Amino acid sequence: MSEIVRCGWCGTDPLYVKYHDEEWGKPVYDDKTLFEFLILEGAQAGLSWITILKRREGYRQAFANFDVEKVAAFTEADVERLMNDAGIIRNRLKVNAAINNAKLFIGIQNEFGSFSDYMWGFLPDKKPILNPVKSLGDVPPRTEISDLISKDMKKRGFKFFGTTICYAHMQATGMVNDHVEGCISR
Description:
Elements: H1 14-22, H2 31-44, H3 49-53, H4 56-62, H5 68-72, H6 76-83, H7 92-112, H8 115-120, E1 129-130, H9 144-156, H10 163-172, E2 176-177
Parallel strand pairs: 1-2
C-alpha cells in the first residue's frame, strides 16, 4: 500500500489536514466564501494560519455567518462587541478593517457584478494557475499577480490585504494551486 502524500505544511493536526484536503487550492467562485477568506486572511496577518482555523467558527458567529451586507452595516457597538469576543483575534485595527473591507467588497460587487469576477479577472483566461511545486521552498510568498491585485485593492481602500496576504487568499481560494507534486490534493 502506498503512503498518502500531502503538503508538509499541514502536518497531522486533523483540522489542518481537513482544510488541506478539502479546501486549500480548490477554485472558489462563490462571493460568500471569498468574503469569508478575505476576513480570515486579514485576521491572520502576523499569525499562523492554524491559529485562525481554530477560531474559524468563532469568526463565523462574530461576523454574521460572513454575510457581507450585515458586516458592512456593523456599528461602533459591534466593534466593541467584537473586541470582547474571545472567539476571534481581538485586534481593533483588524476588526475595523473587516468592516471597512465589507463595504468595499460590496462596491466591487456593484462594479464588476461579483467579487469573484473581479478577482478571477486578474488571471490569464480567468483560470487557476497550477504552479510546479516540488517542495515547500518552491512556493513563493507573492507573485506579480498578487502584487497587482493587492495594489488595486489598496487603491480602493482595502486594509490588511498586502501582496503576501493576497497571495495566501489566492492559494486558499484556488486561484493558484501550490500543492506539491504527488500530493493527494493536487
